[in-house]
Specification:
Layout: E1 3-13, H1 14-18, H2 25-31, E2 44-48, E3 56-60, H3 68-74, E4 78-86, E5 102-104, E6 107-115, H4 118-127, H5 131-134, H6 142-152, H7 159-176, E7 183-190, E8 195-201, E9 210-212, H8 215-221, H9 226-229, E10 236-239, E11 250-252, E12 257-262, E13 265-270
Antiparallel strand pairs: 1-4, 1-10, 2-3, 2-4, 5-6, 6-7, 7-8, 8-12, 9-10, 9-11, 12-13
Length: about 280
């Protein structure tokens, strides 16, 4: 599978997110402790928001631990909202267009997991994508297809409902193909203002997902921790696995849930697939 993180808060150097934590995403690319595989070396990607209308994006098929360009970029770019992803491919080619995050306009999207039976369902799912958007699909992954289904079903207006409908379509299509548990994983999307993260699997046994707790509480609890005091009180992260072992810093996102983060506010709601209108 893969590992990812989503950060929002005061601007931070990418280096501080990707390299400096005790169990950083770079460490996880070699030694993941909660993923399906310990090594996630089939490429990586980083998306960040700055002064432009659309987010910046850097993706590579190099292992994250071995990319000198990423190391240099991370030491010079700071951002208030960052998506980062390390990939462990399970079928689709190792190529730049298959690396996460995926971008459309102001939106970023990344996924850890898979669609079981995607090869058999690919044509049916592709035909459900808005024809005006279909030409923008660049890669061959199930994750990007899920992104374009969510865009088709209204991601830009109501992300939780759009993702519910995309997942609902996949499950209904899988049912017609005789596939029992098609969806597995965690995913995140953002428009640069709000981050939505989802944990769901058809089987009810999703990949790991955690969100950070209130930073102001942690600052009070750990007054000598310099790294915490460099963060703004509204700083929040959602991660595939914790970046360290600081007691009380992380809470597990419950199964079949969506967490929405805007500023320092978090909202946790149940997640349930919906069948898109007009599909029986």
């Amino acid at each position: 599978m893969c590992r990812w993180l989503a950060y929002s808060g005061s601007p931070v150097l990418l280096e501080d997110l990707l390299y400096k934590p005790e169990h950083s995403l770079i460490v996880q690319s070699m030694h993941s402790t909660m993923g399906a595989e310990a090594t996630n070396g089939d490429g990586f990607g980083v998306g960040w928001y700055g002064d432009r209308e659309t987010p910046g994006l850097f993706r590579s098929i190099e292992p994250a631990w071995n990319d000198r360009n990423l190391r240099d970029l991370a030491a010079h770019v700071s951002s208030p909202r960052v998506f980062a992803h390390i990939r462990a491919a399970i079928g689709s080619p190792v190529q730049q267009t298959n690396c996460h995050p995926f971008r459309q306009g102001r939106w970023l999207w990344m996924h850890n997991g898979f669609i079981d039976g995607f090869h058999a369902m690919k044509r049916d799912l592709a035909l459900a994508v808005d024809p005006e958007r279909y030409a923008d699909i660049e890669g061959t992954t199930d994750s990007e297809m899920l992104f374009f289904l969510a865009l088709t079903f209204g991601l830009e207006d109501d992300p939780p409902q759009a993702v519910s409908r995309a997942v609902g379509l996949v499950e209904e299509t899988a049912r017609r193909h005789g596939i029992g548990f098609p969806i597995q994983g965690t995913l995140a999307t953002t428009d640069g203002e709000t981050t939505w993260a989802f944990r769901y699997s058809s089987e009810g046994r999703s990949r790991s997902l955690f969100h950070s707790t209130d930073v102001s509480m942690l600052k009070h609890q750990y007054p000598e921790n310099a790294a915490l005091h460099e963060l703004s009180d509204d700083a929040r992260m959602v991660v595939s696995e914790p970046l360290g072992e600081l007691r009380g810093a992380w809470r597990e996102v419950p199964e079949a849930s969506c967490v929405a983060i805007r500023g320092g506010e978090e909202e946790l709601t149940p997640f349930k697939p919906l069948l898109p209108a007009g599909i029986r």
